[in-house]
Amino acid sequence: MLQSVMIDYARIFVQAGKGGAGKVGWRQDKFVIKGGPDGGNGGKGGSVYLAVDPNLNTLKNFQFQKKFAAEPGQMGGKSRRTGGDGADLIIKVPAGTVVNGKIDLVKPGERYLVAQGGNGGRGNWVFRSPTNTTPKTAEPGGPGQSQELALELKLLANIGLIGLPNAGKSTLLSVLTHARPKIAAYPFTTLEPNLGVLSLGKKNLVLADIPGLIEGASQGKGLGIEFLRHVERCQVLVHLLDATSKTLKADYEQVRQELGQYSQDLLKKPEIIVLNKLDLVAKVPPFKPKAVPISAVAHKNLDALKRMMQLVLTGL
Fold first, then answer.
1. How many helices (H) and strands (E) does the chain have?
2. CB–CB of 224/218 below 8 Å?
3. Are residue 122 and residue 189 in the same domain, yes or no?
4. Are the C-beta atoms of 197 and 177 separated by less than 8 Å?
């Protein structure tokens, strides 16, 4: 049931436009009973492109619409007129969209051709010759290309907030960036990544709240694969731990284990460890490696966390 809410994967079918047919036509002059051939060529069919739109951060537009088709070319006209070309179809996708596991679209405005429009057919004027002065044939338009596309979104973010369910990632995101993710006191409140922008000095940093990782996430348990794909692009990981937990070290190791089983490269990313929910404990629990103690709810020590983020990113 949870799978239906995910909006970072979609399969769509694209169809480019067919080329317009060539025309069989004859010149009709006032004093000529039967003029020569003058049928024009058909127009080219529209092509289909994917284009990166920086205002999008989800594939939700493909939840209900699965088929996309560009316009066909128009038939050729009289007096050797070429038919109009079909309009190209531009399908907008967010930055970070991977197409069929191969093409990575990341730059705003970047376009990628996914289906070429068909060529227009030739009209009968093209087929005239000294031995065939009245050709009665014209070509049909060529077919447009089509294919099924698998779209996979891997968010582009400077900082990824990771941790077990209910560690406080969504609360921290809302406090730091004024984003409005769903927040509640139970696991899996976040069923899809949320983004927010944190202003640090003259820089704007994109933060991604990655849904809570559980044991077996790297094998797909609890939507694990869908969550972990978004960690790949983050420059820095902020690993949130619940300071009220009696198993802090085990909590930390569990998430690290899932990251490593998905990809060893994730373990090489710079990491900031954060002990959250200090407002609920009498004192800061001891923890190694060194951790930044905060309370997202009480807005406690958040400036120290921001300085740490800035320091780590500057060092990259």
1. 4, 14
2. yes
3. no
4. yes
State the alpha helices, DSSP H only, in the chain. 169-177, 224-228, 248-262, 302-314
Range of the domain at 203: 159-314
**From CA 96, how far away is CA 154, in angstroms rounded?**
5
Q: What total number of domains does the chain contain?
A: 2
- pLDDT in 10s for each residue of the chain, 316 residues: 233 344 678 999 999 999 999 999 998 877 766 678 999 999 999 999 999 998 887 788 898 899 999 999 999 999 999 999 999 999 999 888 999 999 999 898 999 999 999 999 999 999 999 999 999 999 999 999 999 999 998 877 889 999 988 899 889 999 998 765 444 344 433 445 677 888 887 788 888 888 766 444 444 444 445 667 778 888 999 999 999 999 999 999 999 998 898 889 999 999 999 999 999 999 999 999 999 999 999 999 999 999 999 999 988 8
pTM beyond cutoff 0.90: no
